[in-house]
Design brief:
The complex is a heterodimer of chains A (154) and B (139). The two termini of chain A are 21 Å apart. Chain A is α+β, with helices and mostly antiparallel strands. Helices cover 29% and strands 29% of the residues of chain A. In chain A, a hairpin with a 2-residue loop joins strand 4 and strand 5. Chain A contains four helices and six strands. Chain B is of the alpha+beta class. Chain B has one domain: Hotdog Thioesterase (Thiol Ester Dehydrase, Chain A), CATH 3.10.129. In chain B, 23% of the residues lie in helices and 43% in strands. The longest helix of chain B has 19 residues. Chain B is globular and about 50 Å long. Chain B starts with 7 loop residues before the first helix and ends with a strand. Classes of the chains: A alpha+beta (154), B alpha+beta (139). Chains A and B meet through helix 2, helix 3 and strand 3 of A and helix 2, strand 3, helix 3 and strand 5 of B. Strand 3 of chain A pairs antiparallel with strand 5 of chain B.
């Protein structure tokens, strides 16, 4: 989909949450909002002996990217149904993360997520976090989000 | 504070910048760890409700699980392999607490579950189930 609006669901989510602002999260390049980047910061390192961004930062970045991916999917769905995108809420129901390896010392982390399916009020998402190469992930995620019926549209 | 005064659970995150960023505190009664996450505005994920960020809640559960492992098996390093977090209700803009139970402490892997709550321990806001890779004798 095209993403001409500066208020894409992804940018709203990245700008809108105090936690993502505190982490310095920015919208990643090259897609409609399900991509996020956490710039490296020394005060967000988990284990100084390893020197990479903490598991918790990777987790939060991926959660945020999953939410943005649902936002993108919900918006695309509203466009397809030819209706205005209603206001509504979403909430993480279940989030499974595999930490394939620690984040590299001193490196920014990017998370990318994709909404696979919206069924009723449930959205199914998967995503991955990496430094530069999506095929060399730090962590992979599978999640389910609840979304309000106003967002889904009937 | 001298290092000898820290419990293994507290020592686990004493040098972690991210634990400090969250404001994580570890309390210990006998050998049971309670993770305490005092509310702070930067932990918010939903400004409308308002609610803590789901990622913060997940990370809090994971860190509490690691702290309990450190207390139970001092000197053994633990790295998270995977965690699954169920979100039962939204986490409000108040202090949070968590406790973890090590279901099995194997030679190489530990199975842990943890719960987080706010006002009432019988009404958890989130639960975790996770696997942790253990390292013995290596730094």
């Amino acid at each position: 989909m095209t993403d001409e609006s500066p208020e894409s669901p992804g940018s709203l989510m990245a700008r809108g949450t105090p936690q993502s602002l505190a982490l310095g999260v920015t919208i990643g390049e090259g897609d409609g909002g399900g991509s996020m980047r956490a710039p490296f910061r020394a005060d967000l390192v988990g284990d100084p002996a390893l020197g990479g961004l903490a598991d918790g930062v990777v987790y939060t970045l991926l959660d945020q990217a999953c939410g943005a991916a649902v936002g993108v999917a919900v918006k695309a769905r509203a466009e397809m149904q030819g209706r205005e995108l209603a206001m509504g809420a979403m909430a993480t129901l279940d989030f499974r993360i595999d930490y394939v390896r620690p984040a590299r010392a001193g490196a920014d982390v990017t998370a990318r997520a994709e909404c696979l399916k919206i069924d009723g009020e449930v959205a199914f998402i998967r995503g991955a976090a990496f430094e530069t190469d999506p095929d060399d992930p730090i962590a992979i995620v599978q999640a389910a989000f609840m979304i309000s019926s106003a967002l889904v549209g009937r | 504070m001298r290092e000898t005064e820290l419990s293994p659970a507290s020592a686990r995150f004493a040098a972690s910048p991210y634990a400090r960023f969250l404001g994580l505190r570890i309390e210990l009664a006998d050998e049971t760890v309670t993770g305490v996450l005092p509310f702070a505005p930067h932990l918010i994920g939903n400004v409308v409700l308002p609610a803590l960020h789901g990622g913060v809640v997940g990370a809090f559960l994971e860190l509490t699980a690691l702290a309990q492992l450190a207390q139970l098996a001092p000197g053994v390093s633990a790295r998270t392999v995977d965690v699954t977090v169920d979100y039962l209700r939204s986490s409000r803009a108040v202090d949070s607490f968590a406790r973890a139970e090590v279901l099995r402490l194997g030679r190489r892997v530990a199975n842990v579950r943890a719960i987080a709550w706010q006002g009432d321990e019988r009404r958890p806001v989130a639960t975790l189930r996770g696997h942790f890779l253990l390292g013995r004798g290596t730094p």
